[in-house]
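Hi R.,

Quick one: here's the Delta(3)-Delta(2)-enoyl-CoA isomerase sequence you asked about.
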Amino acid sequence: MCTLEKRGSVYVLTLTGDGEHRLSPTLIDSIQAALRRVRSDPTPGSALVTTGEGRFFSNGFDLNWAQAAGSGFLERLHHMVEKFQQIVADLFSLPMPTIAAVSGHAAAAGFMLAISHDYVLMRKDRGFLYMSELDIGLPFPDYFMGLMRSKIGAASARRDVVLRAAKFTAARAVEEGIIDAAHDSAGETVEAAMRLGEELAGRKWKGEVYAGIRKATFPEICEVLGLVENKKTTTATASRL
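And here's the predicted structure, written out as tokens:
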């Protein structure tokens, strides 16, 4: 599951336990409840750090849970895909800076969870970023593709992520601009994320303004998530009035 605590001005959301932090419906619900608690805090000047215990940040959706349904596998997978989309939407609309402290492997939906944050820091002594869909024969949800186009700027890096199923170490991910920084250990990664969180929270920006600018910065994924209107559709509708 996950825990939420506030250290100074920074909320720390931790995926707990030594497992793979697979994004089952139960874990997704737990994360969403934590994000609701963060959003409800009226105190100005906060930030969020998300991290995980053990060797994994998150190894993606709970495919064992989906496969346990037999012929209902795709239905269960679709259920997780839809539920997780709301987590991504919550992070893109959260009224404060967000930082992922990637403490280990981040694969598939776990990778997407990381890059849904404003900043991504990663340990370099263990773990990689990896989109496994090509290797296991599953298509990408539309919002995964929108997220990767929005957050992975280099076309060659996106190609290797989606069409080569490449496993990116922290060092390579920094080189490709996928993450912001790499640190020697999980502990140092979290410490660096906390320092960044305190620095950003100290600016005491208005939360609604910060969230609005974030959505304007990444219009494609925010449109897919239903956070902003389709400008073409809006313009066409207005022209008929």
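The longest strand covers residues 2-7.

Cheers,
M.
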